[in-house]
Amino acid sequence: MGDNIDSDAIATAYAQVRDDANVDTTWAAFGYDGKRIVYLTQGSDYDEFLTLCTDDDRVYGYIRVETGDEMSRRAKFAFITWIGPSVSPLKKAKVSTDKAFVKEIVTNFGKEFLCDSKAELAYTRLLQVLEQASGAAYGTGK
């Protein structure tokens, strides 16, 4: 991967999101410092993640959501690539190459999202898609 990505910091944040015992971290964000992909921040409030997704930024997000029913709760993970609508065409094109570097570290997720509008980032949409991808739900209907 080389110098174009801060692998250690990204791997640490990724592990913290995946850690079942870590309730303080449900998402991690990665972005750019110049041409280098770096760890940005992490948190537990999805709305905080959304504030990073501005019109002129490219952001990679690793998100944990709890799905299931009253009989079984499961953690599901999403990998989000945000490309703001004002990002230059050259930077948009570079995302396809750069995303591969991030995905060498962030390897386990149920669904991948490529978003360029805030509506696509809605938590309810994310949750719905992850629940559909997870298979059968065996609730009691309560």
Main beta sheet strand tally, sense and closure: 5 strands, mixed
- Low-pLDDT runs: none
Number of helical segments with 4 or more residues: 4
Mean pLDDT: 91
**How much of the sequence is in beta strands?**
25-35%
Helix/strand order, N-terminal first: HEEHEEHEH
Class from helix and strand fractions: alpha+beta
Distance between the termini: 49 Å
What global shape is seen? globular
The percent range for helix content is: 25-40%
Element layout with pairings:
Elements lengths: L6 H12 L8 E7 L2 E8 L2 H7 L5 E11 L4 E11 L5 H15 L7 E5 L7 H11 L9
Parallel strand pairs: 4-5
Antiparallel strand pairs: 1-2, 1-3, 3-4
Tell me what the structure shows.
This protein is of the alpha+beta class. 32% of the residues lie in helices and 30% in strands. The chain has 4 helices and 5 strands. The chain has helices spanning 7-18, 46-52, 89-103, 123-133; strands spanning 27-33, 36-43, 58-68, 73-83, 111-115. Strands 2-1-3-4-5 form a 5-stranded mixed β-sheet, with helices on both faces. The protein is globular and about 50 Å long. The mean pLDDT is 91.
Provide a brief overview of the structure.
The protein has helices at 7-18, 46-52, 89-103, 123-133, and strands at 27-33, 36-43, 58-68, 73-83, 111-115.
Comma- or semicolon-separated keywords:
alpha+beta, single chain, 32% helix, five-stranded mixed sheet, 30% strand, 142 residues, 5 strands, 4 helices
